[in-house]
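Lecture 7 notes: from sequence to structure.
We start with the chain below.
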Amino acid sequence: MLPASPGTGRNWVNDLRAPSSRTSGFHHVAIRSRNFDRSLNFYSRGLGFVQVRDWKNSDTRAVLLDMGGGAYIEIFERKVMPPATGAADTAIIHFAIRTTNCDATLELARRAGAEVTVEPKDIEIPSNPVVRARIAFFKGPDGETVELFEERSDP
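Predicted structure tokens for the same chain:
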């Protein structure tokens, strides 16, 4: 059984589905970068994401890049970071970028210097309904795992 929303006695999932919640989908993924300029270059010049905001405080920079479709990637400069320990030690396993051409997008990432970890392949997720997709994975400039996801409607 799902917990009640605080003070309401109602299921919080139903509250999220209510029109008053005004949620409309995923907005952004934020990453910390050891080399801000390299990451900005990779995602903007390499993958073609468009810079829409940037800001700076006393010792760090940040940027918001439009990935298309109302989704963004936010990059925060962090000059000193603990050593990367791998996806198993973080809450986020990977983030997925929706694409209409998995192969072409992976080639852009590869040319921009990404380490490809899974070449494009077709998958079928045995969910209800079944999801068919073409996917690929690569490592971004700071070791982040990125999935390319091309959903397919063909049988």
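Points to note: Strands lie at 28-33, 50-56, 61-68, 71-77, 95-98, 115-125, 131-139, 145-152. The chain has a mean pLDDT of 81.
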